[in-house]
Amino acid sequence: MKTDAKISQQNNEAASVLKEFEHILKDRAGYLKKASRPAVAWSSVYTPEEVLHAGGLMPFRLTGENRPESSKSRAILSGGVCPYVLSCLEEV
Question: In the chain, where are the structural domains located?
Answer without folding.
Answer: 1-34
